[in-house]
Amino acid sequence: MKQPIIGYHKDEEDHWVARLACGHNQHVRHTPPWVNRPWVTTEEGRRSMLGFELACRKCDEGAARDFVQDKT
Known about the structure:
The protein is an alpha+beta fold. It is built from two helices and four strands.
């Protein structure tokens, strides 16, 4: 199921993680040649991808949320 990116944070290994509107987190690594996401390396690039929909495997599997979105 596709879900829009609503924000980002870094994990304990300093890798970027997208926060999805569904409440799940998903790594968005740039590790060429396997994964090519140069946009993740800059703040401008990450900001440009807010709202972009990623396939959320956790939603497909019915997994519990990783976080609860603030309503403020």
